[in-house]
Amino acid sequence: MKSFFGNNKCIAMVLTMAMFFLACKDNYKRIGEEAQELIYPQGVAQNFRLTYTETVEKVGSEDSSDTKLIAILNSTIAEDFDNLRFKYWNFPEGLKVDFFDEEHNKSTIVADYGIIYSATNIIDLQGNVVIETHDGKKLETPQLYWDRTEDWIFTQAKFKFTNPEDGTIMDGEGMDFRRDLNFFKAHKTYGLMTIKEDES
Q: pTM of the predicted model, to two decimals?
């Protein structure tokens, strides 16, 4: 009799433990940020520096040609997500881009954060974005997009544009322009002020 009850206790204990483990299934439904799959870069570079150059004329397989400097990108951290279907580079600690025109004049863009989308050639700059051209023009805005293929820059955010050539300061919202700021189209302006210096 004892062994019969002893076996039943063991079987009951095993069944209880099995039910306990099966009942511990995670039924919690994750939403929002918890539901997002973690994505890691395929590479991380510190003190990153990338130089964009362009050949002056078409180069064959064995030809050599002169190149012209287009831009130099510097960042303390660069994260390479080119392992994803929609490839991009991430600059979480900000970036600085020096770009050069045909006469080798240097202008600068700085931002607190940036993403370069490899497939579309679009750069998304965010946080204290400032463009300063070689001739002293200055644009300040919280976010800016740069289409490198079309060499076109645009935003829907608020901006402040200063042009020392004619003493103009313009505040507005939304604009698009060429990289050298020679063509500038503001969507909405809040004020335009011309400051004239006293010639006496």
A: 0.71
